[in-house]
Each structure stands twice: as structure tokens, then as C-alpha cells.
Amino acid sequence: MMVWPGMLDLALNPDLDIAGGLAQMARAGRAQVAKLLAPTSADALLSQVEAHSPWNTVAFFDGRHHDFDAASIASSPRDQVDLLWAHVHAAARNGFGYIYDNHPVYDAWRTGDPASHRPLDALVRFLNSEPFLALARQLVGAPDIAFADAQVTRFGPGHFLTQHDDDVAGRNRRAAYVLMLTKRWRPDWGGQLLFYDGQGDVTGGYTPSFNALNIFRVPALHAVSQVSTFAAAPRFAVTGWLRAGPMP
Asked: Quick one: pLDDT at residue 3?
């Protein structure tokens, strides 16, 4: 494989607490594995994510997913931006809704020119490498996990993802994962990955952190709480699903 200057070189931390992750998974169907990547890998990945451009703003309203150019939204007249937020809030008020920034790295990698140089392609290759997939199979207890899809996400003030369970027919999702890439965060800035029982009570959750893998079996009722308007930094993460069957 051709290697370009600046290409990401991602590797698992050789000293992972896998036993601890397995114990967590057995208790609750979810686990947090600290220090997933080797330190230099984690820092390099965050640098590429922070430098990435352009970003999409993705939102759900009027019963469907919408994609916008984040830079265009930032430069739009205030009344147009307010209208977008009004649609998003109306959807979330009594049902499902979300708004956040993303870069669909898996889709870009799958449909792009294999010879092109996109630094974040290396992230998708890592997530679909045997070392990472073997770790996922072990943690989840799903030997049929065959591949991982992925998006890079950036949650800023006001962004959120309401309660849902990720169980979509035909997608063969065995588990969901969130690789947190957030170095600077306070718990009262929001943005927590929260889990719920059938009565809507919070049964656990994870505050944004750096180089930690949050992984949980599908289905599991969860949400990302709204990021506070006074949050002083973005919540960066890589998110996706670990799936069985052939890669589409």
C-alpha cells in the first residue's frame, strides 16, 4: 500500500484492560475501555479530526434525515438558522431528533478512489482491521461481527441526539461504539452518552473523554444529552456500528 506523508498510523494500546471490559459487558451489556489507542495514535487521530474540513451538519426533522454544509449554516442569516433550529426542536419535542456536525468517513472510504489520499481513510481501515474487530467480537460476544462503519462527529453548543435504540431491520448491527476524542470537557457541559430503562430512568452513562472506547450491544435505549450553550470546546468522537454480514 502506498503511504503518503502525514498518513495516520493507528495501533491498539497493547496494555488494554480487556478483562475489565468483559466484566462490565457481562453486568450491563456495555463497557468503557480506557486508552484504546497507543498514545501517539490517539494524538495523531485527534489532530486530523480537528483539522478536518468541510464538516456537514446533520439533522432529523419532518420525518427524515437532512444534510447541510456546516460552514454555510454558520454564514446564513439569523432568521434562516432560527428556522432550522425550530424544525429540529419540534421533531425532538415529541419524538426522535438530532442535530450535530459529522464527516461520514466510512461512506467516503467505501465510495472513493482507493488511490486517493484522505488521511481519515486510515481510520476506517483500522476499524476494519483484524486486531480491532477481534477485540470487538470478544467484548460483545458476537463472533459474526464482520465490519465496522463509522462517522466522525463534532457536537457543539445546542447539539443533541434523542433517545433511540439503534435496532434497524436488515442492518445486522451487533453493537454500537463511540471512540471518544475529547481532551477538554466538564461534566456540566452536557454531551453525555446516557442509557435508559423502560421507565425512562437513567441507568448509566459516560462523560466525554479522550481515547476511550464506549461499546454497547444493540438494542439499548440511549441518547446524547444536549451540549450546553456555555460549553467551551467541541465534543469530538468517532461513532458507528459493528455489523455482521457482507460489507454493503
From this structure: 39
Say what the pLDDT of residue 115 is. Answer: 57
- Residue 151 CA to residue 124 CA, distance in Å, equals 9
Instruction: Provide CATH code, domain 30-56+97-244.
Output: 2.60.120.620
- Residue with the three cell numbers 459493528: 242
pLDDT at 118: 80
Q: Estimate to the nearest angstrom the gap between the alpha carbon of 139 and the chain centroid.
A: 18
Could you give the CA distance from residue 99 to residue 221 in angstroms, rounded to a whole number? Answer: 18
The contacts of residue 49 (CB under 8 Å, 6+ apart) are 120, 152, 154, 181, 236, 238
Question: Could you tell me the residue ranges of all domains in the chain?
Answer: 30-56+97-244
| DSSP state string for 156-204 | -TT-EEEEE----TTS-EEEEEEEEE-SS--GGG---EEEE-TTS-EEE
Residues of the chain with pLDDT under 50: 1-5
Residues contacting 91, CB < 8 A, separation 6+ = 60, 61, 62, 63, 97
The answer to whether residues 135 and 18 touch, using CB atoms and an 8 Å cutoff, is yes
